[in-house]
Amino acid sequence: MKQSKIGAWIAFIIGTLYFIVPLIGTFEFSLRMKRGEYSFEAYRVVLTDPNFLASFGYSVLMALITVVIGVVLVVPTAYWIQLRLPKLRPIVEFITLLPLVMPAIIIVFGYLRLYNSSSWLPLTANARSTDLLLAFSYVTLALPYMYRAVETGMRSIDVRTLTEAGEILGASMMTILFKVIFPNVRVAILSGAFLTFAIVIGEFTMASLLNRPAFGPYLQLIGANRAYEPSALAIIAFMVTWACMGIINVVGNMKSNKRTA
Amino acid sequence: MTAIDTTPPLPAEPGPVPEAYAASKKPLVGQQTWAWIGITPFMLFAILFLIVPTLYLVVGAFQDPDGHFTLQNIYDLFTPSILNAYWLSIKVSVASALLGALLGFFLAYAVVLGGLPAWLRPTLMTFSGVASNFAGVPLAFAFLATLGRMGLVTVLLRDLFGINLYGAGFNLLSFWGLTLTYLYFQVPLMVLILTPALDGLKKEWREASEILGASNKQYWTMVALPVLFPSVLGASLLLFANSFGAIATAYALTGSSLNIVTILLYAQIRGDVLHNQNLGYALALGMILITGCSNGAYIWLRARAERWMR
Amino acid sequence: MAFLEIADVRKQFQQNVVVKGFNLGIERGEFISLLGPSGCGKTTVLRMVAGFESPTSGAIRIDGKDVTHLRPNQRNVGMVFQAYALFPNMTVADNVAFGLKVAKRPPEEIKSRVDEMLNMIKLPHLASRFPYQCSGGQQQRVALARALAHKPKVLLLDEPLSALDAKIRVSLREDIRALQRSLGITTIFVTHDQEEALSMSDRVVVMNEGRVDQVGAPFEIYNDPATKFVANFVGTLSVLKGKVLDPKAGRIQVGSNEILASRRVINANAGDSCSVALRPEAAVLENGHDLGTGRNRLGGTIDEVSFLGSVVRIRVKIDDAAISLDTFNNPSAIPPQRGAPVVVSFTPNDVLVLDGETKH
Description:
The complex is a heterotrimer of chains A (261), B (310) and C (360).
Chain A: H1 6-30, H2 41-48, H3 50-83, H4 89-101, H5 104-114, H6 127-156, H7 159-168, H8 173-202, H9 205-209, H10 215-225, H11 229-257
Chain B: H1 19-23, H2 31-61, H3 72-76, H4 80-112, H5 120-133, H6 137-147, H7 152-161, H8 175-199, H9 203-211, H10 216-244, H11 248-254, H12 261-271, H13 277-309
Helix pairs in contact in B: 2-13, 4-8, 4-10, 5-8, 6-11, 8-10, 9-10, 10-13, 12-13
Chain C: E1 4-13, E2 16-26, E3 31-35, H1 42-50, E4 57-62, E5 65-66, E6 77-80, H2 92-102, H3 107-120, H4 136-149, E7 154-158, H5 166-183, E8 186-191, H6 194-200, E9 203-208, E10 211-216, H7 218-223, H8 228-233, E11 238-246, E12 251-254, E13 257-260, E14 273-278, E15 284-286, E16 296-307, E17 311-318, E18 321-328, E19 341-346, E20 352-354
Parallel strand pairs in C: 3-8, 3-9, 6-7, 7-8
Antiparallel strand pairs in C: 1-2, 1-4, 4-5, 9-10, 11-12, 11-14, 12-13, 14-20, 15-19, 16-17, 16-19, 17-18
Helix pairs in contact in C: 2-3, 2-4, 3-4
């Protein structure tokens, strides 16, 4: 059925305008720092601000820790559920959907009440343990995506058959896990990891309420006090997110090219 | 605010386990135990950092400061200022969900079924993946830089077309300004969810309906839209919950001037502005119920849609 | 004039000519199969009759009316798809009623017609089920009922059985044929399965690379193939290399023997090499039982005996080649042993001479 494509083009063009114009506007605004001329002054100020480096570095570190904790939690669970405990699958799926159902602010509210200095697990007592709590809260944020990426990856390689093949050939459980399963889900883990990275870098609510010097609160602070630097920061944040997504795409394509019988 | 990646929302049910393997599920005496041990860290984490905190809030909503059971907090929710906060949140969420659903539908349709060049689709998908994560503080900055008083578009409209946005009453720091900003991640989310659903519209259905005598319009009203309806409704509910729970964007954009529930809760957590801890819990409970129901309905509808597509 | 005419239809996609000069006249009530391998153009022809593709040149006429440029929804044609294509949001009854609803028939008429159709396919109890609750075979039957409900002039089936299990395929095959007969509807059936085509059709159209190689009744196609392709595609063949000795007398040299072929040794010159083909049921083992004069005889050794139940398939090595022959199971006779020397005999009429050229 040949239909006129005019409607489709109009929708696409309007969509494109809506998405591109704010980016252009932000970029243009960020160049206006020096009165009367366009310059990268705002970027220079931002990138040389020690707080920028400190908070960005902090968030990057938190992201890495989150990814590690997430992988350690998710991969064995997905594996054992697939292999030996399929009946628990609905429960685990429900758990991984919970963070999607509940807003981040609720979760961190619960943490603050439950794990503050006067509780049985005083995680907010000092900075290090609060960092740990923040990492845990990031893990809950990333859990749905991490779990789903890994589970899909495991399902596509038929973990059960691979494990049985390994067993028949005489391999121990550890060998199977590390030499057979892990390499095959590595790509899925990477996808989940980069998505987690993107989420953590820009996160504001949890870091702010737990009072940690992450990138999100830093952004908000700059926004409240300065005029042009926020736009530069927004562009930088956008670039970082785009890079993460781009890498996920590349990694994802590597996976489909790597398919072996 | 939920981030979403570009894979389809719910993984398809795994295929049936071949009979041979189902039979061989007799584990050795250590195997099953290893499995239980293997998932313990995850379960422990889930209990400590997901389930218990939520339950704590829920239970706390029904307690007074001395720990006795009470419904007073629930009654106290119905004060004008709190009700207004909920109502405002609901309004913003409905507006951004409906607009986001509508615009997202047309954009997804254009790219999947609209006959546009094939390379536009992966571009849109990647961009949607990025944009749906580009919420929060940077997004607020971007819109301030574009539609704020000194923003690019505001200035261009004034200088090139003589249109004075702010003079005409528009203000980014308002209900509609926030809705407009929210659309930046709502529309991509809709596109990401709807594209696989549109893909699922089998070409044969259209051909079958055509050979049975139906016109294009009849195909859409009798087959395609009903088939898409659970996905569209479910996605709209997801957008609603997404908007309801969002705070960072609103905080960075409007500060505390727009009294939505999340901002109120934020202030309460920070500084007990309600002067009543348990009322704060009740506030959270209200949020949990609303987003919980909305997301729950989304998940249910998604499962229904998939069952049909089998 | 035939009821359904496909006149000199040609279809070209950019540089690729997918259908070359297709001509066919189908009588009212006839069951025609388009048979051929993937890519031979049979589905494209079907889709052109349906209206989903437009011929690059040529015309299609149904009951005297030129439909070549009509949209599919204007042709009053019914179609059954390989993937069933039942609308998932509607019950079985609503699916069957779809064509009638679109035509805005009155509700009572729709209801009675739907009941009639569901009874015809023997699935009245599924009326309020949804497609995902039905098995593949059931879904395909519902698709059939849906296609026929609004009384189309022509029924088109695009490999409808390919997605089904073997057993269901056979029973559904019979159901489709019985239904078609009782309704007397002109039908085109596309398949790559020759058993389907042979068992169901009034006439079979064998297609190869966009061309029609042969049109004829199943008996004709099988026993009198017009081209090497048809002979190979329909049924199985044993092929031996030969050299034409005397085209008029039909004498051909095969290995160290000479055989007589009674048909189709035309346009060949003495000394030409050719292929001699035999159907598996044509060759017979003669072990001391002389089956009469006038039969061709070739000597060989048993290479393999496969017991398939009612059929015993024996492969006989003859010089460098092998002949496969089928015999029925005989409980009171021992199957021959591997390595045993035997004589294979067949009548001159059984010999198919193929030299790769199209003969019409």
